[in-house]
Amino acid sequence: MVSYSKKALSVAVCVSLSQLFGAVGAQAQNNDENRLQLEEVLVTGTKRTVAQQDLSVAVTTVTAKQLENTFQNDVTALSELAPNVNLTPQTGFNAIAGGMRGTGFNSILVTKDASVGITVDEFAFNHVQSQFIEMFDMEQVEIYRGPQGTLFGKNTTGGAIAFTTKKPVLGEFFGDIEGNYSQFASNDSDAYKIKLGLNVPIGDTLAARLAVIQDNSDGWYTNDKPAGGEFQSLGCPFPPDPAAEACNNAARSKFPDVGRGEDIGGKDVLAAKLKFRWQPNNFYLADLTFEYVKDRGDTVAAVNETPLANQNGGEGYLWPIAGFPGIGGGDPFSTGQSYTATKVVDIPGGHKIDADGIYLNQTFSFDNYEVKWILGTRSQDEVLASTYTGEAYTSQYDASRNSERDQLQNELRLSTKFGGPFNFVTGAAYYEDDVDFLVFGNLGYFLIFAGPAAEFYRDTYEIQVTSQERESMAFYIDGTYDITDALKLTLGFRHTQDEKDFTRLSLGTAENPVSNFITLDEFKGPHKNPLPESAFGNVVKDDKDFSSNTYRIVLDYNWTDDLMTYASFATGFVAGGFSETCGSAFSCQPYASEENENFEIGVKADMLDGKLRFNGALFHTQYENLQRDTVISIKDAAGNDFQETVALNEGESTAIGLELELNYVPTPNLRIDANLGWLDHEYDSYEPGYDPATLGLVGTPQPFDFSDLEVPYSPEFNGGVSVTYFQDLSNGSSLTYNVNVHYQDEAEINPAPASFQGGTIANPVLKQKANTQLEERTLLNAYVTWEGADIPLEISLYGKNLTDEEYRNSANPVANLWNFTTYGAPRELGVQVGYSF
User: Which InterPro entries would you find in this protein's record (predicted)?
Assistant: First the structure.
């Protein structure tokens, strides 16, 4: 069956296959004369309904059909639909890293704010761990590039993404069902997907819509990597000492170092939305949505890509010395995963996420005004058991990161509809975002480093406790004045007040360095801390207010009805906060907000009687108070030295970039879409306080000049081309063909330099950490879709990454212990069938 499916799909792929970039075929489903025509696109993310081509902001709008033909629900797919957008997975988690225009970071901190704001039906998702969104039942996605501090608020220095889902339609009964099957080249593993959308009228003024998705995959990684070398516990004698073998065997007993050969890293997500729309008259409209998400996917697979001693001049990692040298020249999809399976940390049990939300958006329409009230609440519980290292042996740090998060949003907005030259939108918003976070960690590396004497750590678990309560309030106003019929001035202002109350309990006490450890018998549940506060040597309780005034000034000029140019200045900020991983009163001090200023000129043009659309933007962005992770050395309550990674404000940078987008329909049956992003992003200054020991030097912690390092998430080039052809068949059915290609340059992920490079205090040797880059890659995708004439049936055959390119898409080095990474999906061939009724 597998072999037959692969042959059938391979034949189909030779004809065409998958759309991961650009506009999609058959956008105008009811226009047989031109199925690929350019449409007028209306955007709502600016809190007023405006035609995209009239909006003096760099924005890409992705339609429902375009998203459908990406054949995936992952938000990171948007990276291939717009220039200078680099969204990647968080290493080891189903969350979002990266950003836009050179912003972004790879952080799993539940208290860390993102640099790209995300909203779904105007409900804001504030943190990286809550930004993994099942991208289904979407009407359109608006990708705003550049700081959006005025209209979207905090955490939008890079830009914002506004998702709009499909709404119930009054007076109509209809629906659609779609099924998807595909296979991955790396291990012939399977993926299945089923979507259902159903619209039901309830009288003349009320309608309901049910949208459901079940998304399953076996994962494209396999837990079968061979043992990497001779095991050596750093707590045992080294050969040829005759006691070495017995000591090492005792240290590694009970734990195999080769997996069972099962597929790992798979998905198992059930998500549903039940929506109601009530419109009793032209004055009042209400949209009520109930959301449910149940994720029972696998633990996210990782690859041990720790540099060896002969790589990059040697970086002093301890993991290779212990006998785990990484993938070397091998297959990254053949990896390892820990066997730890207890009620405290259950790696085979995977990642368990449950979320539910209730959202009510109400609109009140007056003759010259519109009032909108947005009210929503969302709860998300997570039990994330992870192994991180890509080894089957008991991991360096098997841990379960468990959190409970509650969000509330209450926003009231007024927009005008005056017939005169001046119109504006103004509003006030209140947000709550509370998270309780609990880590149960199994310090397996002590078994390796300390040998049999460390047996205490085999079945005990370190506890870390963090909580943060946040209240945010904002007031904004944004107005446009028509100076002449052609020239418009837009001014916007927003004041944001962000208050965070932070609590951190970690490490043992001076009297007992392991007082914050528990046994299996002491475990009370994934969200229950069984220890008193007195069991922790680091107890920090603090609060801090972060306020900011952001604004924008825009001039745009309409040379003709189809040609507009604009110039703008806008500001944004990422709120400051506390480092969730901090281990002392010093390192738990709050860091400040990151800010940026953006100058931009742009053009938007529709030409050749609507056959050609061209949008471009040239920008200059200055970032200040950069939030960067840095390694510091501190002492625990017992006086022991250890390192930790915390966020600090260090440095400034300047980004200059160009963005071009083109849509061209030379004939009714042919469409070409292209985008190109160019970015030159460099540090102006970057001198964090750093421990010289990390660089292999002797001395006290002091600032080092790291400004020659590359800024993370700043590839020089990215872009792609998509070609779509529509063909009518003699029986009335049709075929839509698409081939597209997307390129992304190499980019750094980690801002820190490689460890143990040497030199002197005055002139240290600084290199980027090896194996931590987003690798240069070119993805070739294609699809062909058959649409029936007399029956509402669509069948698509598709392929993604047809050349089976192997590329790293995230990485996370852990001090000088090890480095773990993930890789993009290998070639995927699939079939999708959809039926409408």
Answer: Beta-barrel_TonB, Beta-barrel_TonB_sf, Plug_dom, TonB-dep_rcpt-like
